[in-house]
Amino acid sequence: MNTYPSQQQMLFQCDHHMAHSMKKHKENAHAALKKAMKHKVRVETLDDEVFEGVIINVDAKYVYIQIEQEGSRGFYPGYPYPRPPFAPYPYNPYYSNVILPLALFDLLAVSLLW
Prior knowledge:
The protein is an alpha+beta fold. The chain has a domain at about 40-110: SH3 type barrels (Roll), CATH 2.30.30. It is built from one helix and five strands, in the order H-E-E-E-E-E. The chain has one helix spanning about 15-35; strands spanning about 40-45, 50-60, 60-70, 95-105, 105-110. It has a five-stranded antiparallel β-sheet with strand order 4-3-2-1-5. This is DUF2642 domain-containing protein.
C-alpha cells in the first residue's frame, strides 16, 4: 500500500538564469584550475573556509587538493613504549597528507601561492 501522496509538491526550484550562471561558474573554475594542476593554491569557499594545498586533480564537479595536516589535536593512543621491533615508526593520523575534494560551484576564490 502506497502512503505517499500522488502529486509531488515542489519545495524549491532554482531560477533558470541562476542555474545558467552556476553552470558557467563551474566551467570557468574548471578551466582555471586545470591550468593550475600541481601548483600550491589557497582556496576560499562560499562558506568562508580557507584551505591551502596542491591541486592534484580536477574533474567536471570537483577539485582535489592535497593538504598537509600536522601537529596533534588530541591524544592518540599509539604503541606501548618501547615500540615493538616490527613497527619503529607508528602511523600518526594527525600528520598525514589528506586529499580534500571541493565542489567547483562552491569556490569563491583561488590564489596561486607558488
